[in-house]
Amino acid sequence: MIAAPSGQRAGHVRRSAARVTIPTVSASVELVNVSKTFGTVEALAPTDLSIRAGEILTLLGPSGCGKTTLLRLIAGLVPASTGTIAVDDVAPAVARATKRIGFVPQAPALLPWRSVRANASLLLDINAKYSTSTPSASVDELLAEVGLADFAQARPHELSGGMQQRVGLVRAFALDAPLLLMDEPFAALDEITRTEMRHLLTRLRSHHEATVVFVTHSISEAAYLSDRVAVLSPRPGRVTSIETIDLARPRHPEVEDTEAFFEITTRLRHALAGHA
Amino acid sequence: MRLLRSVAAPVTGILVLLVVWETVVRVFDIRRFVLLAPSKIVAELGRDPGAYWSNTLVTARHMLIGLAISLAVSLVVGSIMAASRFVEEAVQPIFVVILVTPWVAYTTSIVIWLGFGARPIVFLAAFVSFPILTFGVVSGMRSADPAARELLASVDASKWEVLWHLRLPAALPVIFTMLKITVAIALGATYFAEGSVGGNEGLGAVGRRVSLDQTIGAEVLWTSTICSSLLGIAALVVLTVAERTLLRWHASQRS
Questions:
Q1: Predicted TM-score of the model (pTM)
Q2: Hey, which of A154, A208, A256, B126 would disulfide with B66, CB 3.0 to 4.6 Å?
Q3: Cα separations (Å) of B177 from B79, B140, B220?
Q4: How many CB contacts within 8 angstroms connect chain A with chain B?
Q5: What is the distance in angstroms between the Cα of B5 and the nearest Cα belonging to chain A?
């Protein structure tokens, strides 16, 4: 296991030092005693977390609970203050350098000068040496799958917020990365669009085996999407409980009207309130 | 209707200017060297259009080469400054000195240094415009979306990839704005330097040569001045068309 040493640079990793390619479709993530301090502020208390290959794990918590910090640590975008993180037995920086992480930021972050299609394939164009040569689905297929086939040549400003974030999802899925990290991707959307987006993500994910770590403060989002939910409390951020969501898959929107779903959201709300 | 207005309004403005200008010169009998009537300028232009055209082309070449060099240097220097706060803060005072020092004051030194001919002219045009262009490149590159930078970092984009795919396109709107400003500055420097090197080519050289000529000096001086204005306007038109074409995606180009 290659550990991420504390204070490791989060910048560009030299390619020659990073020739590690383990062809898996889903990655496991191991965090041991990981903490993060910004100056004197402890954003994340020492945390142990095992994310299983192929599962969808949600980090659920209120604003400022360190869930985004935790996601960025796994992405290798910030170095951990203590502890070790391993993505399929390699450090996050190595996983990042070999394009084994598909990142979906909170803002869609579409480049306004690129067409929808060019935005969707942006991450394939960058660091192209590590792009998969045998993608399970082409960018055009993915765009069609999320209902944007007719908008492939459109510019981002011509799209609604929900459509823009669908491009963000396609952009991440197109990488065929074994680990997808999503940082509250639907937080800025209206409630109706937001509900549609979690149904869409579940459909999209059903053809892929990638492990998904999904950050949210929405209880119903966590309940609908997840296999397991890690509930976080703020100041300093810590994982207070891990809830298993035993809803059968494939899941359909109707499940949100069932007694079982209601029980799960109630359980998650109590888990959150336990440390409010 | 909008198209009609966008053409009719500026044409009306120019016509009003010409009528007032012509009237004021005639009514107050203003001396030729102080202000020449538009009708006399048109007549002088008709007397020898070939000479004015070829001198305008020379001045255009000087200015464009100067601006091209300036843009190339500012892209390189600006990229480095955008990547390093230390370099930016070290270079900034130097640029401020260049910007506030009147270039008229040291033009003679540049002519002595680079000799006669086109070199000192092109150098001055580039030198006075590149700090402004560089500031534009730096602030434009800094305006790149932080979320997009993080996204590129998530696949370990190299500095070149970040520059090419994100920073440079993000900087284009500011670069165009700065280019429009520097056209006027570079044109002024070009005109003055052409007069200072003692050569025979270019509108600046023509204007300098006739400035003491009592026979047709005023006519030539004013006509070469108007040719300079037309050259500046032509450059702005080219830049605006290029901007409209290249920056269709940018909010400033949507109506």
A1: 0.81
A2: B126
A3: 18, 10, 33
A4: 73
A5: 28
